[in-house]
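Tokens in:
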């Protein structure tokens, strides 16, 4: 009797590790994303620290749906770089075709993790393309980041939204107002040791 096929089971730890490895391979650090978060939020929270920004980026990247989007987008960029996609998709991704919006749709799955407030933040950094986004959009390098630039902007936008929600909750607590925290998970209070991306 032939060996029965072992049913597929998701290895969450492997997915999280692959996300870190691939972002590092593509030259993106948590600190660079946190700098975008600082740009988006400093005006509203003058006492915001880079440490808080880094922590919130790490919390966004710990979400499985975010990891799925990161891995999918990066793989498509890499395949396009290697010329392994079929035409016309190869040409559209290779040239970051303006009317090809699937990269933004994938980014929206990240933006939406912390509510619709993220769309405003995402639209702003996507238009401005500051910091790491400028580098990822440099078409002279030979690298293709059609998906990754939107993903990085989306992670920054989601982290910004996460900060806004938490600052509002803190304000309500200080005022003694009744409030319902949206997630009281231990992971939200302190990142797990060794679970961070390269700085």
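Residues out:
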């Amino acid at each position: 009797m032939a060996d029965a096929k072992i049913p597929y089971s998701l290895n969450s730890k492997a997915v999280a590790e692959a996300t870190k490895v691939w972002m590092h391979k593509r030259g993106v650090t948590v600190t660079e994303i946190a700098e975008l978060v600082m740009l988006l939020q400093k005006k509203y929270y003058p006492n915001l620290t880079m440490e808080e920004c880094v922590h919130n980026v790490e919390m966004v990247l710990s979400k499985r749906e975010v990891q799925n989007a990161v891995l999918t987008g990066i793989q498509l960029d890499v395949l396009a770089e290697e010329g392994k996609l079929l035409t016309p998709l190869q040409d559209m991704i290779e040239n970051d075709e303006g009317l090809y919006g699937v990269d933004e749709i994938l980014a929206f799955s990240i933006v939406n993790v912390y509510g619709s407030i993220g769309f405003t933040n995402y639209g702003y950094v996507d238009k401005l393309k500051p910091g790491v986004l400028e580098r990822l959009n440099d078409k002279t390098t030979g690298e293709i980041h059609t998906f990754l630039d939107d993903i990085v902007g989306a992670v920054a936008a989601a982290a910004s939204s996460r900060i806004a929600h938490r600052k509002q909750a803190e304000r309500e607590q200080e005022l003694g107002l009744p409030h319902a925290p949206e997630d009281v998970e231990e992971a939200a209070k302190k990142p797990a040791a060794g679970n961070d991306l390269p700085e």
